[in-house]
Amino acid sequence: MSMDEDFGSSFFAGNRARLTQLFTGTAPIVITGNGLMQRTSDESYPFRQDSSMWYLTGVDDPGVILVIDKGREYLIVPAREAVVEAFDGAIDVEIMARRSGITDIVNEKEGWKMLEARLKKVRHVATLAANPSYIAGTGMYTNPARRRLIRRMKQVAPDIELLDLRQHISRMRMIKQPMECTALQRAIDITCDTVRDSTRPKQLAKYAFEYEIEADLSRGFRRAGAEGHAFSPIVAGGINACTLHHMSNNSALASDELLILDVGAAYHHYAADITRTCIQNGKPSRRQQQVHQAVCEAQDYAYSLLKPGVIIEEYEKQMEAFVGEKLRELGLIKSINRDAVREFFPHATSHYLGLDVHDVGDYERPLEPGVVMTVEPGIYIRDEAIGVRIEDDVLITETGCEVLSKKLSRELV
């Protein structure tokens, strides 16, 4: 039995109902899940469902399509070759119906026959717009499922216009429901407990390589009931800590160097994202302590700013100015300007957190109670091989913010 069943079909049905309320048009809503992606000649990467598709259906099988049209909901299940079923198993339609609350589940031939008939009669169809096939900023190729769905619908009805549902779903997913908060808190607690166990002085002193810590974190997450890592873990010692997404985790550790652990467990698909900076020998230098203290003060300042009504862009400007003061106190810059600050603090302080570790959300919209986000200031001094980042997860409340990961000490020693 999947852990997702704890959510219950009412959660997914409620999300679909809210989407149809936000989207006031009469056009059919057609949304696809992710497809499998090739890893080697005949093996795929581990499957990860499109988060919005899971949010609306709870379905964790590749290639399934959701249709909401004139009060009717149905799922189109792709055909599977016999050899695929032999190796990967058949899709369990009963579990899919129970989890999603959608009992109308049809095969690909029947489903597309119904959908094509509707597409030929309407002027618009609502869907999730596809990302470009390649995102230069991240150097990633994207899952082609949305592009494939759109291409097929356009083949059926070449003149049909697409209505993009991404903003509606982003705003829905921004505000976490109680069940989502429970899952997030569990993911955070598992992460805190596992990181604490792995960074106890006697345990930390045993590690010779970054990957040994990664292995213990993986074991700890799974033993505690998590699905595993919510994202590729970062275990970065010394100069590696100045590479924000150091993920090879292969380097030898030195007892007098700072070590960054940026990790998060996944629980019911929901992601924790926590970072701690520590040192193996328990004896940080005065300089290391100064930088660490500056980052702690920056995080406390961020907490003082976060509350309903705050615009993230303005908040980030305030954080940039505050960290700039700390950098000047550390003797790293003489004047506070964006270029100078960003040499040592090159990333944003906060991002939304939820089904994705960098979750969807409207950064121009004022914060509201129910938003969950990270707070992760950092200072990176490559010439000194010092990198410090401290990251916690917070819930925006009616009056401010609640630190969900406060059980994990942020002390350097």
Which keywords apply here?
single chain, 413 residues, alpha+beta, Creatine Amidinohydrolase, 4-stranded mixed sheet, 3-stranded antiparallel sheet, 37% helix, 19% strand, disordered N terminus
Helix content: 25-40%
- Biggest sheet: strand arrangement: 1-4-5-6
Mean pLDDT across residues: 95
- Kindly, what is the distance between the CA atoms of the first and last residues, rounded to a whole number of angstroms? 42 Å
Overall CATH class of the largest domain? Alpha Beta
Structural class: alpha+beta
CATH architecture type of the largest domain: Alpha-Beta Complex
CATH topology of the largest domain: Creatine Amidinohydrolase
Number of domains: 2
Shape verdict: globular
Low-confidence runs (pLDDT<50, min 5 residues)? 1-5
Tally of strands: 21
The Rg value, from CA coordinates, equals: 23 Å
The CATH homologous superfamily of the largest domain: Creatinase/methionine aminopeptidase superfamily
